[in-house]
Amino acid sequence: MTSSPLKIACVADDTAKAQAAYAELSARYDLIDIAGKRTKPDALVVLGGDGFMLHTMRKTMHREMPIYGMNCGTVGFLMNQFSSDHLLERIADARKSIVHPLSMFAETMDGKTKQALAFNEVSLFRESRQTAKIRISIDHVVRIQELRADGVMVSTAVGSTAYNFSAGGPIIPLSAQLLALTPIAPFRPRRWKGALLPASSSVTFEILDAAKRPVSAVADALEIRDVKSVSVFEERAIRVPLLFDPERNLEERITAEQFSV
């Protein structure tokens, strides 16, 4: 008895490169439609860059579909190399990595509470010419009474190679089960460079003097302005399976980033 072929679906960014790749795959493979809630493919092929991949992950995360990205963008850190050849075999041989998003709850100055999810990082930024003043608590214990900086972020291992690393934060191996807490252009405390936290940690930011020194909170691409307090924790109940070619799996990519020059 032979095994049934994999059922795959495909979504593509609206760029010319991604649309051309979609047309190529459509001509070679029998793609199924995922519009129906009951339809669950063996893998969802995503064509685009990292931004479109994150968008797709947020859109489909509650369906737990394995996602196999192919780079039709620029950096493509979360993507595999594009090729229409042997796609079913590549997906069947792919290595799976489970990622969890950060959950952000933000209270705004007008008393509203807003929630968002982020697979890379949650960042706080000053909105005016003056530095932000932020009190930081970890698991309800105040660790920094007053951070004066352009901002601060909490990053996942997946996001640690991106903005977090550019801001001077550490790259985190995927299996380490850690979050990075990284200041953005800190002024006081002068020597604080950030911290590594257990993935189970809950981080709370209180904005001090918020009326005079307004701060916005950004969860990946979603911005919430004029926040009063922000709580961040890893949402373990949400599991997104990402598929990677064995020779360039996500764990290896994150490790390799620590040795890039």
Task: Give a brief outline of the structure.
The chain is α+β, with helices and mostly antiparallel strands and 261 residues long.
Architecture blueprint of SSEs:
Layout lengths: L7 E5 L3 H13 L14 E6 L1 H11 L6 E5 L15 H7 L1 E5 L2 E7 L4 E6 L2 E6 L5 E7 L2 E15 L7 H4 L11 E11 L6 E4 L3 E7 L6 E5 L2 E3 L2 E8 L5 E5 L5 H8 L4
Parallel strand pairs: 1-2, 2-3, 3-16
Antiparallel strand pairs: 4-16, 5-6, 5-15, 7-9, 7-13, 8-9, 8-12, 9-10, 10-11, 12-15, 13-14
What does the average pLDDT come to?
A: 93
- How much beta, percentage-wise? 35-45%
Tell me which CATH architecture of the largest domain applies here. Sandwich
Tell me the Rg in angstroms: 20 Å
Description:
With 261 residues, the chain is α+β, with helices and mostly antiparallel strands. It contains five helices and 16 strands. The strands form two sheets. Strands 5, 6, 7, 8, 9, 10, 11, 12, 13, 14 and 15 form an eleven-stranded antiparallel beta sheet that branches. The protein has a five-stranded mixed beta sheet with strand order 1-2-3-16-4, with helices on both faces. It is elongated. The N and C termini lie far apart (50 Å). The model has no long low-confidence stretch (mean pLDDT 93).
